[in-house]
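tool_call: predict_structure(chain=1)
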Amino acid sequence: MRFRIHRRAQRAASIGIAALLLVLAGCGGGGGNGNNNSGTPDAPPTISGTPATSVVAGDAYSFTPAVDNPSGGTLTYSIQNLPSWTTFNSATGRLNGTPTSADVGIFANIVLSVTNGTSPDASLPAFTITVVPAATATAYTVSYNGNGGTGGSVPTDANRYTTGAAVTVLGNTGSLVRTGFTFSGWNTAANGSGASYAAGATLAMGSSNVTLYAQWSANTPPPSYTILTILPSTADPGADDSFGSHIVIPPVSGTTAVNKLFVFLPGTQGVPNLYQLILKSGASRGFHTIGLAYPDPNPVGVICLTSTDPNCFWDVRQAVITGSFSQDISIAPADAIDTRLQKLLVYLNSTYPGAGWGQYLLANGSVNWAQVVVGGHSQGGGHAGVMAKSYALSRACYFASPPDWNNGTILPHNQPAAWEGLPSVTPPSSQFGFAGLNDTSVPWTQLQVIWQTLGLSVYGAAVEIDTNSLSPGTASHMFTTGLAPNTSGNDPGNPSHGITVRDAFTPLNPDGSPVFDAAWGYLCFSP
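tool_result:
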């Protein structure tokens, strides 16, 4: 083990350390849409739906509107010009009834409204119901066909419709499925060559029965990844293996190589194996990717809490990155990030000739930083930030980081560490950050100030990706999420701190893919 804390730091006063540890020790962890009674006060409800405009005498008629009630107040429905053959439920808004031959005729200017008692009524546009004589009316049906479905059931519409009637197309209410495919809507032709309809769309009834066929989109098979687990001592016999193995994932076969290397640095006490999803995200986009194992047993904030070095944060991180001197930490040159990465690239280029690893080495054998994107979580993101200050990287992306914030013996208190305001060789235009709004290890209130100090705020306010889509035109370089972390695994880290990037805590889609894959692509893997 080549990692040690100098006795001077060990003898420093412990006052305040325990409290800070509660926040920082999780550093590696990686550190309803429904209505309710705590909704937006006085917000009016909205009402929608398309009632059928005709019914054959003797047939049942029914319509219930859809209502969004953001205030959560009690809803009361009302109706004007209620047809004599119908009944109306003021608690649900349901209009239903069965007309007889005596009811044949036109029932016009029907207005259905709803109120929550504290705001103006919301109303549907006035509509008309025509009762058609059974003896003369020709009514047609709308049926649904699974079109190759392998499970679930098709929706059923028991109504009959006269020519010109407005039909509301049903959704996949029976959870119809087809192995290897995803349901994508309905079409009047089985092969999709007819008219397409989404759930809730309006179909104008013609003069014949209609069959709507389920449409299916073939699922794209998941990429096949080559995952290499390499001990640091395999690449360099002088390296210490006690900090975990490197994880290496080359570009996925069939993708277009982008000739860039993504290097990811884990958080405190984290190992690359805990961050495979973002490596796969890069490999699927044509990146060579490396999860680099390095000495990370203690949070830098804890090390610097009692340090007498006013530049402790910078000096400790430079020691981890380059092996340079710090009075608070000692890193053997073979275990420094720069050395480990360089030795690993030499090993990969020698072991897998022609695989493209050599392009990330200059003629003198040093790392070609211009083709390298460095990302990191928590402590690893702090190292990525210091590297961006010193090296001309292709890009830097920070997850819940950099976390460096002056406390303890370093003055002035309660502000970003001094290094975060230094000029940067990698321009802020090539730096991006992603944070959890509920992070209990690196609070958003601090991190947004740190990002502002780094210069990221000049590109606009932070964007919450849960409610905003990312596109090439998105200006901001600061992104947040308020989603709840995935806690289904047994990772002992801090879920709120690891949500943005750590495998065990990042939310997943139903198909198992990361919810944040598009965000990762924008932050780390965009051109």
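agent: Confidence is low (pLDDT under 50) at residues 1-38. Proceeding to next step.
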